[in-house]
Amino acid sequence: MTSEENLIGLTTDRFKPWQRAMLTALACSATTLLATPLLGHLDLANIVMLFLLTVLLIAVSLGRGAAVLAAVLSVLLFDIFFVPPRFSLAVSNLQYLVTFAVMLATGLIAGQLAAILKQKAHEAEVREHSTQALYDVARQLAGTLAVEQAVTIARQFIGAQLEAAAAVLLPGEDGVLPADVPAAGVRIEPHLARVALDSAQPVHDSEIGGSGYASLYLPLRASQRVRGVLAIAFPAGAPNLPPERLALLEALASLLAIAVERLHYVEVAQATQLDMVAERLRSSILSALSHDLRTPLTALVGLADSLSLIRPPLPRPALETAQAMHEQAARLAGLVGNLLDMARLNAGKVTLRREWQPLEEVIGAAIKLLGGALTDHPVRVALPAALPLLEFDAVLLERVFCNLLENAAKFAPAGPPIEITAELLEDCVAIRVCDRGPGFPAGDRGTLFEMFARGREFAARPGTGLGLAISRAIVEAHGGTITAGDREGGGACVCFTLPRGTPPVVEEESA
Amino acid sequence: MNAAPKVLLIEDEKQIRRFVRLAVEEEGCQVSEAETMAQGLIDAGLSKPDLLILDLGLPDGNGIDLIRDLRGWSDVPILILSARSQENDKIDALDAGADDYLTKPFSVGELRARVRALLRRRSRSGDGAGPVVEFGDVAVDLSRRVVLRAGAEVHLTPIEYRLLATLLGHPGKVLTQRNLLREIWGPSYVESSHYLRVYVGHLRQKLEDDPAQPKHFLTETGVGYRFQP
Lengths: 511, 229
Description:
The complex is a heterodimer.
Chain A: H1 3-11, H2 17-35, H3 44-62, H4 64-81, H5 95-142, H6 147-162, E1 165-169, H7 190-199, E2 203-204, E3 216-221, E4 226-233, H8 243-306, H9 316-346, E5 354-357, H10 359-370, E6 379-382, E7 390-393, H11 394-411, E8 418-424, E9 428-434, H12 467-477, E10 482-486, E11 492-499
Parallel strand pairs in A: 6-8
Antiparallel strand pairs in A: 1-4, 2-3, 3-4, 5-7, 8-9, 9-11, 10-11
Helix pairs in contact in A: 1-5, 2-3, 2-4, 3-4, 3-5, 4-5, 5-6, 5-8, 6-8, 8-9, 9-12, 10-11, 11-12
Chain B: E1 6-10, H1 14-26, E2 30-34, H2 37-47, E3 51-55, H3 63-71, E4 78-83, H4 87-96, E5 100-104, H5 108-125, E6 132-135, E7 138-141, E8 146-149, E9 152-153, H6 158-169, E10 174-176, H7 177-184, H8 193-207, E11 217-220, E12 224-227
């Protein structure tokens, strides 16, 4: 059976070929019976017209085969029943041979034309049918909420339209296609799938068709990139891929690609939303905690302080107690601050408020903030004149300097200055805070920057061991590193780096 | 006769109110208290205080809205009490018109110093400060646009001078970066904070003894600058 016949057969399916032949014979006999009583009244030429009309009607309703049969039968019946001598094939007047020839030719041509018309109509119907099916698929795909759902819709479409099996291959995070889709019942040739994905062109290999292997691989081309591969396995003995089917499948692949891309962005948006919610929750818990811890501490610090304002003045020992209470409460507040900072720095992504600024300024602010704690430890700042602007979060970097200066003041003896220097390296700036204290204990250097790590010898001194851990978290969030070392001539030296980047230009004034 | 300055304290925590009241009374002020924002706004309208001390974390609303409301009809100095983690709130409060802030926990000494400074500025603002402002060994004659340091004239560029004049115009007050950038460079520069930082650095180089540890042009990290006479 050729495909053309198959197409016609689709509409005239209700009759089998022998039934069509019977109908044709009946119609021609009926015409003969109808025309016989008119023989005396009508010209033979007009009776020919009746037969031609019959052939035409048969061609339109029963197709080309029937039309040919009708043409031949009509000529025979006309000859036997109407052309003298009647009831024989013999022809008395040779003119009638011309009539037969014209009749036959007219019948055949009319049949052919009618059949073509029918075929065109049928093709249009098929096209409309697949367009409608595509519309339906597009509508269904637009409503999908998950990739699996979209894949199922596409597979059902291919099953219903082409009676073929299909599988959808989606690359994983690493961009590699899965070698097989077990649930689909289609065997995949990974190499062909890869070619389709990389080239973004359909790949067809009819050699491996029918063996259970997918023979057609269509890339899922979306606006941004190829989102996957649609693999189709035609049943054994299926005809070659006609162009209109390929077009239909390519249209389906586009629809599927758009759906997959849309779902991908939905997923991305949802993940972002989730991140934001988690971030907001974290920060609101931390600020609630911070408020609840700080409020009583603020009251404690202030109330202890205000004891000195009582009139008449309290006796001296009571005032000293009040002063000690104030100091302890302030220290506790500092520790709570450190713990909260550490919690905030550890609670996922640190959000930096980075701005380009001179390093000098934040050092000055840190020194001023520490104020009284540095009275016995003068700080000497020696920065190169050509130090460019650096991009950092001033509040956090101020914490780093405060922590390092506080440490230096705590461990170094009063008198010799704490030195802050900076060195311009190729792609970063190395900043050092050095003192003349006892230096870092040799064994603990690796763990100095861990949380709650404290030099063993200093276990008796106040502190949580969070200062250096916080400093490291802040420096690393800025893309730098922090190390502890010895200072030449004795003392400790903490060195950290900040990336240089490309500072913005500040235009000089013309004046 | 000089009546005792009236101070309105808006703070929801009773124990904090207690020691703040003690400290402020020690400065010779008459203190009234409010626990909520709504009450505070009413009291501010009724008693016309000379100084307002406002906690930013009030339970019944945002202190920043109160500042905006208040600034519509009053220029009373406002001192903010806030936690350290609230940099953005501080900036918003200062931009809305607050004058200064204290970070919790703070000592009574700090509080008294701020209250004193704010009240002094208020009493002085009436009699029109003279055209010459002096700090350290620097004298600035705002009428003649002359800056002298230890008697010798210092050359400032036009932007440096404008920045200096703006800072001198608000002694003791914290000016936010945004505020200064808008004032001196214009609204399109509010995000270009590096301009401001570079020029403050210039001023310090020219007018401070130790530019790395300034005494007059102070940095309020993450917030802005303050000129301390």
